[in-house]
Amino acid sequence: MSNLDARPAPADCGGEPHPGPTRDLLPGRLTPLGESTVVRRLLPSLGRRMVGAWIFVDHYGPDDIAGEPGMQVPPHPHIGLQTVSWLHDGEVLHRDSLGSLSTIRPRELALMTSGHGISHSEESPRDHARLLHGAQLWVALPRERKDTAPAFEHHRELPTFAGGGGVSGTVFLGEFDGAASPGTVHTPLAGVDLALAAGAETRLPLIEEFEYAVLSMAGACTVDDVRVEPGSLLYLGHGRRDLPVRADTDAKVMLLGGLPFDEKLVMWWNFVGRSQADIEQARTAWEEGRRFGAVEGYDGAPLTAPPLPPVPLKPRGRAR
Prior knowledge:
Structural class: mainly beta
Number of strands: 26
Region (Disordered): 1-30, 301-320
Protein name: Pirin family protein
Number of domains: 2
InterPro entries: Pirin, Pirin_C_dom, Pirin_N_dom, RmlC-like_jellyroll, RmlC_Cupin_sf
CATH class of the largest domain: Mainly Beta
Organism: Streptomyces bohaiensis
Strand content: over 45%
Family: Belongs to the pirin family.
Helix content: under 10%
Number of helices: 1
């Protein structure tokens, strides 16, 4: 997934004092993506830049794309991060400069590690389902892994659980309550997709050292006495051993967590680096056709990198 903002502002990320338990409800900011998709951007936001190593969260749909092209995101580059594609409805065709060609379907994990550099495209297949609904997330790579070789993983089988009382879930990345996703991670993480029947109540087991957030995908639920509507993110801080959740209607939510990410970062356009030089070098390489390879088979031109902002790009903390 790409950040298609033609004038992206630098995002200040990383290295902030760790907050204790909190309840900060963040609304999504409507942002156009590609030719025909509008997403709700939840991270980075004005006051919250990261949750663990989760550095970017877009929620889109459910959109009726019958008779329409659906998602069409041309080839674009990434460095210093992992992209996580997660669908509830529809399909997304992934192509990348490693030669990967894969159709991602609901509750399958598409995990792309950019490392030193990769490019990819995402599109709805020509013969696609009526609805498109999902989330796109990025995970920052730690300093010692930021220049790792690029890779792509597609996991169709993931650990699931049924908690009883109308609660079930899938661990799509990291670990949760003793279950581990097969997806490769480079920092301690939790990514869990939960389905709750109307009236269901549960207490989710958490790790005190992790910070967490809950993204509402569909329906309405109450999380630690805060009502969370679809397309919003409730940031919860760290220091919790469990989390009370109640479904007001049939609801679907994502629990995101991880150890607070203490490194300072610069995020600009589709790049995550440690300095302005990292970003400048990546942008120049993309514009000159170096470093990122080519995406074969996409019917269209790759994205052009926007101009750099007139202000210096400085690594900053995790929140303003």
